[in-house]
Amino acid sequence: MASFYTVGIVGYNGVLGEMQMSIRVKLLRWQRSWSLGELGERTGLTKSYLSKVERGVSVPSIAVAIKLARALEVDVEALFSDETSAAEIKITRAAERTGFDGADVELGSVQSISGAAAKRMMPFVMLPPPEFAPASREHEGEELLFVHKGTIEIAFPNQTVKLRAGDSVYFNALIPHRVRTVSTAQAEVLIVVSYADD
Questions:
Q1: Pairwise pLDDT comparison (128 vs 17), residue with the higher score
Q2: Nearest to 138 by CA among 9, 61, 13, 26
C-alpha cells in the first residue's frame, strides 16, 4: 500500500493530519475549479505526476509541497491539516431552518437548506445500512444530505456526526464519507449531488 505521508511539519505534533495530503491537494484544486493541467502550469509539475499525488501513488518532497502550497495560495501546513473549514462541511440542524410561516399552501413553498447554487444536481433517496460500508466514498462535486426519517451517522476522515430527522449536512464530496442508520427504525435520507460541467 502506498504511503500518503513522508513529510513532517514542525509544530504539528510531529504527526501529519488524518486527512491524507492527496485528498487535501485534490480538494484545494477542485475548490479553485482548476484542472490538473492548470495546476501543473502554476507549479511547473507534470499533469501525470500531479495525478499520482492526488491518488496517493506518489508522495511529494518538501520542495514539491512548497510549490503546491504557493500555487494553491495556502500555507504548507494546510496541505497536511486534519481540520476541515466551516466552508467545506456545513451542518444545518432542524431547529436552525427557516420555517414556512406565512407561506401560501395552495401555491406551494420551497425552502432552501443549503444556500448554494449548483450547475447540475442529482437527487437520490437513500436507506442507509445499519453498519458503515467497508470503504469511504468520494466523488467530484458537492453533496447535500437531508435526513427525512430516523437518525444517521455520517463519518468523515476526522469527525463523525449524528444527524436526526430534519438535520442536514452540506459538504465537498471529495471529502471521503460513509453513512449508516443508528435509529431503531430504518432512516430515510434525501441526497442531492451537484457537479460542475467539465
A1: 128
A2: 26
